[in-house]
């Protein structure tokens, strides 16, 4: 498994637009308001804080539909060249 190296923040309201959010998201998301920010990692898991080791995980088991939503609706993608740099490429 490749280590996580990139994440991007989104307002929770944007994440809740996903039709399957209620069944995909774990309980900690209930304490977040629509204007709070959550972070989608490069493996499509979601946490409430990307720099705290014990951050609450909001999405632990991403589905294909979730990945597609992130790519198409949220425009989530790893910036060009970042993956190669992280993996030691040139």
Brief sketch in words of this structure:
The chain is of the alpha+beta class. Helices cover 24% and strands 17% of the residues.
Q: How would you state the average pLDDT, rounded?
A: 88
Q: Indicate the structural class.
A: alpha+beta
Largest sheet: 4 strands, antiparallel
Q: Helical element count?
A: 4
Rg (C-alpha, Å): 13 Å
Elements, N to C (H/E): EHHEEEHH
Order of strands, main sheet, comes to 1-2-3-4
Distance between the termini: 21 Å
Question: Outline, from the CA principal axes?
Answer: globular
Description:
- This protein is 24% helix and 17% strand.
- With 90 residues, the chain is of the alpha+beta class.
- The chain has a 4-stranded antiparallel sheet with strand order 1-2-3-4.
- Strand 2 (37-41) and strand 3 form a beta hairpin.
- The protein is globular and about 40 Å long.
- The two termini are 21 Å apart.
- The model has no long low-confidence stretch (mean pLDDT 88).
